[in-house]
Amino acid sequence: MTDQRKKEFSLRITQASKTELIVILYEMYLDYLGEAEKEAQDRKAFREAIRKARNCLNELMNSLNFDYETAYHLFQLYLYVSKEMTSADLCVDAKPLKNCRMVIEELLTAYREVSRQDTSGPVMENTQTVYAGLTYGKGKLTESLAYQGNRGLFA
User: Fold this and answer.
1) How far apart are CA 43 and CA 101, in angstroms?
2) What is the pLDDT of residues 49-89, one digit of tens each?
3) Which of 71, 78, 112, 151 could form a disulfide with 64 if both were Cys (CB 3.0 to 4.6 A apart)?
4) Please, which contacts does 73-78 make with residues 24 or more away whose CB atoms are closer than 8 Å?
5) Where in 44-136 does DSSP place strands (E)?
6) CA–CA distance, 29 with 23 (Å, rounded to integer)
7) Model-level pTM?
C-alpha cells in the first residue's frame, strides 16, 4: 500500500462512523489482497501482503458483536476467507485469493449501503476537522486541517 493511500485511510478513519470503519477495513483488506496477487512471484512480498490482509481480517473478526445472530454468519464467512488465505499462503498461490476477494467485495458493497444510512457520526472525538477544496492549480485537491483547541484528555 502506498504512503498516499495510508494517509487517505488515516484521514478517513478520524472522520468515520462505526459502519464506515468496517468499510475502511474491507477496503484496506482488498488493497493488501491486491498486493499479494501482484506479488505472487515474490514469495516474501506475497507472504507479507497476506499477513497484512490477515491483520485486517482479524480486526473484522474481533469486532463482531455476538449478541446479534448476523455476527455468527459473518464469522463463518471470515473463517472461510481465512482458510482460503492460509491455503494461498502455504502454497504461495494467488488462486484461492480470488474467492477471498469475491466474499469481501460482496460484504463491502453491503456495508457501503449500510454506512450511507448510518447517522451516528464519527467514532473518534476531539480530532482535527478536515476541509478540502480545489485550489487555483489545475485540479489539485488541497486539504487543510483546522485546529480545534484541546487535543489531549478532557479535564
Assistant:
1) 20
2) 999 999 999 999 999 999 999 999 999 999 999 999 999 99
3) 71
4) 74/107, 77/103, 77/107
5) 129-134
6) 10
7) 0.78
